[in-house]
Design brief:
single chain; 38% helix; 12 strands; alpha/beta; 368 residues; three-stranded antiparallel β-sheet
């Protein structure tokens, strides 16, 4: 059976973790500090802190914004469920927004309506590795906290110089074939006042658990730094997890290039079918997090069909806010409901062999 997810852990990651264990330095310490330096370079941010969980990261981000108690914080209905728990535990009121069916993201229009209903802050979840329309959302002037757990590494490229034509094709001349680390532009995680990158098992960068809390702006980082400077060790990311994350970030662009190559093959398999992919305005520069597909038929039928071919698929939004409180948001989040019920993710990770890729491609080609 080909599993839906793989941690992409290789010998380098294992060696880093084993070194921590041999040195008996598994709590927060030197490697946590080294991870922070690497994170600052990767995300081009002013400062960062590595924490034990994403909900802790969100609580600190909200605290740094100095909101009044009970303020309304907007989140997507397809956001991971830890967001709504963190908001409520921090003493704020969550406002759950519907999404656009084409992208699975909130739009500027949806956020604007949320602001009319009292929304003071937006937690912008960049689901499935797809980048939202940052420009229109930021133009609303509302504070934004990005969740880049699935979109880390994505980039909005700099506009081409006047008169310069950017060559595109669906093979080797497009942006995906360039060295991803050398593409110039603004990266996911640098649009919000603060950004969270969860490091959980199925996130694009994993440490087996934990989260990064980032600040891109040099004026915003001192504020966040003052909030977290007295943080308890129990809330910091242990070195044993930091060691794993450190190697994952260093190997990110190599892994991402492989994921993009597989994504291109899978995309061709579904182009003539009844099922659809999500819209990606900058297809080649968004992050490849698994292979999501909006199904024309029921999820259960497709899952059974894939299982017969020894391929595991899972619901893309199985642990989202909507799944947690379906009755409460059933009428207000209709697009999110449809995507929750019909979006599946197929295996896509660097460790897939050529034979496995071909097998998945054939299944995608013949889906009911």
């Amino acid at each position: 059976m080909i599993q839906t997810f793989s941690s992409t852990i290789r010998r380098k990651e294992m060696d880093a973790v084993l070194t921590c264990m041999v040195d008996e330095k598994i709590g927060p310490g030197e490697i946590n500090a080294r991870l922070i330096q690497t994170v600052k370079e990767f995300f081009s941010c002013a400062g960062a802190v590595a924490l034990r969980s994403p909900d802790v990261a969100l609580k600190y981000a909200l605290k740094a914004l100095n909101l009044e108690a009970g303020s309304t914080v907007m989140i997507s209905a397809l956001a991971p469920s830890w967001q709504i728990f963190a908001i409520e535990e921090a003493g704020f009121t969550p406002l759950v927004l519907d999404v656009e069916s084409e992208s699975a993201h909130v739009s500027a229009e949806i956020v604007s309506e949320g602001m009319k209903n009292g929304g003071r802050v937006l937690v912008l979840t960049e689901s499935l590795g797809i980048l939202p329309d940052f420009e229109s959302i930021l133009s609303l002037g509302i504070p934004v906290i990005e969740d880049v757990s699935q979109s880390a590494g994505g980039i909005v490229p700099e506009p081409a110089a006047e008169g310069e034509e950017q060559k595109k094709s669906d093979s080797e001349e497009n942006a995906a074939s360039q060295k991803l680390s050398e593409i110039k532009g603004k990266r996911a995680g640098s649009f919000g006042i603060y950004s969270i990158c969860a490091l959980e098992e199925h996130d694009i960068i994993t440490a087996g658990g934990g989260a990064l809390l980032l600040s891109h702006g040099r004026r915003d980082w001192p504020v966040l730094k003052s909030v977290v400077e007295n943080i308890l060790p129990v809330e910091m990311l242990p070195d044993i997890n930091a060691a794993l994350a450190l190697v994952q970030i260093k190997e990110f662009f190599r892994n991402e290039q492989k994921r993009k190559e597989i994504h291109a093959l899978f995309s061709r398999s579904v182009m003539s079918g009844k099922n659809r992919m999500f819209a990606r305005d900058i297809e080649n520069l968004s992050t490849v997090w698994s292979f999501p597909l909006v199904l024309n038929s029921g999820f259960k039928d497709v899952k059974q069909y894939a299982q017969k071919k020894e391929i595991e698929i899972r619901a893309a939004f199985e642990n989202c806010v909507f799944s947690l409180r379906q009755e409460e948001f059933d009428k207000t989040c209709k697009n999110a409901k449809t995507l929750f019920l019909r979006t599946a993710v197929f295996p896509l990770y660097p460790r897939l062999s050529r034979t496995q890729v071909e097998k998945i491609s054939k299944v995608l080609l013949t889906l009911p």
